[in-house]
Amino acid sequence: MGKLDGKVAIVTGGSRGQGASHVRKFVDEGAKVVFTDILENEGKELESELGENVKFIKHDVSNAEEWENVVNKTERTFGNVNILVNNAAFGKRSRIEDCSEEEYRKVIDVNQVGTFLGMKAVVSSMKQVEKGSIVNISSVEAFQVSGDAPIAYIASKYAVRGMTKSAALDFAEYGIRVNSVHPGAVKTAMLENADPEEYRKLEESIPLGKPADTEEISNMVAFLASDESSYSTGSEFLIDGGVSASL
Ligand SMILES: NC(=O)c1ccc[n+]([C@@H]2O[C@H](COP(=O)([O-])OP(=O)(O)OC[C@H]3O[C@@H](n4cnc5c(N)ncnc54)[C@H](O)[C@@H]3O)[C@@H](O)[C@H]2O)c1
Prior knowledge:
With 247 residues, the chain is of the alpha/beta class. It has eight helices and seven strands; from the N terminus they run E-H-E-H-E-H-E-H-E-H-E-H-H-H-E. Helix 4 links the parallel strand 4 and strand 5 (132-137). The radius of gyration is 17 Å and the shape is globular. The mean pLDDT is 96. Nicotinamide-adenine-dinucleotide (NAD) is lined by residues 12-13, 15-19, 37-39, 59-62, 87-90, 110, 137, 139, 183, 185-186, 188.
């Protein structure tokens, strides 16, 4: 028996990286999953690989109308929504002087406003089943700002940390839990193409000696999505190989 048997989930930014890993994990644990992304080709490929319990919808998380469409299609295809993972995000590593107003607003629009719109869009569907779990993906950088501080990305990830607590208090009366996950370095494509010397330095800086595999983050996300975490809400789950232990 899977820990997500009978659950209906929406995962954003699911075409690649950690989002794709969460989709795979959720399916393995028995969920029916709608995943969304702006990357259409990768999304369609993953959809056809994973079969009938998975549906891909092209979707920009910063667009409120598209959110309405995603929730309506999820309900029609699989039923009311039990789980939302707000995973989609992006950000260049721009310092203040190099970050245009346009870039700043775009990062906030996707990472922060997208998370707000997602929570707002699913709440009525979750209320129907009197239960729900929302997992907002933030970062260890919402606790500890790294040397080359990317202003917009960090602002958005601190915001997601606070929004999670606000939503948790708002939604508690409906039986809807909201928690944030704060990964440290994760082995996604970007890191795998890194300069070998930079990668070695990164490994040395992590007490557990390596960046996380995407599956290690997915295990945490699936736990929070499931009823196993039934008494956790408004909480922050750091998963960083020990990096923040020295804070
Ligand atoms: N990789 C890391 O080391 C790391 C560390 C801490 C936190 N995170 C967070 O983990 C999450 C997943 O990141 P990842 O490492 O898998 O990166 P990724 O770039 O591989 O995945 C992000 C996905 O979001 C999608 N996306 C971007 N803008 C979108 C939009 N407007 N609408 C819909 N989808 C959009 C992208 O197309 C991509 O598929 C992000 O929230 C990221 O901030 C990553």
